[in-house]
Specification:
Elements: E1 3-6, H1 12-25, E2 29-33, E3 45-49, H2 56-64, E4 70-72, H3 76-84, E5 88-90, E6 96-97, H4 99-117, H5 130-149
Helix pairs in contact: 1-5, 3-4
Length: about 150
């Protein structure tokens, strides 16, 4: 198992949680972004800078992801692609995407995009709360614990 992070939009507080978890669990964690994302010195933490452009980081993550991997992203289409490959996808609010939930999220995303295209102001995502951060950390811990129990 390796952790891949869609780091362009990943909140700093979530990256910090990931840094600590990678060290504790000794799991390779790679941040992928179109800008250099600094990581603490560690053999478990890596940063990959990709070219700027639409979905370049997402495409890189999809190409590199293996079925046992975990991808951290709030990007619904990226989550759908990695889940289809057999990997797991977790958003910064602690929601683990499944094949069933990802279809629902894609439908909602498309619906909201249609509303915005017609001029309806939908607003952005809510601010990441302490409860969200805790839910993320708890779900990450559960996934890492499952990794340890797996043969």
């Amino acid at each position: 198992m390796q952790i891949w992070v869609d780091a362009d939009a990943c909140p700093r507080v979530i990256r910090d949680i990931l840094f600590r978890a990678a060290q504790r669990a000794q799991i390779h964690t790679t941040l992928v972004a179109n800008q250099l994302i600094p990581t603490p010195p560690s053999p478990w933490l890596h940063s990959v800078r990709v070219a700027s452009g639409f979905d370049i980081a997402d495409n890189y993550i999809v190409q590199q992801t293996a079925p046992a991997d975990l991808v951290i992203t709030a990007d619904i289409p990226l989550a759908a692609e990695v889940v289809e490959k057999g990997a797991q996808a977790l958003n910064p609010r602690g929601e683990l995407y499944t094949l069933e939930s990802i279809r629902q999220r894609l439908n909602m995303r498309d619906f909201m995009e249609t509303l915005r295209a017609s001029g309806v102001q939908t607003g952005g995502p809510a601010t990441l709360t302490h409860t969200d951060r805790q839910a993320f950390a708890n779900q990450l811990d559960r996934l890492l614990a499952q990794r340890v129990k797996a043969p």
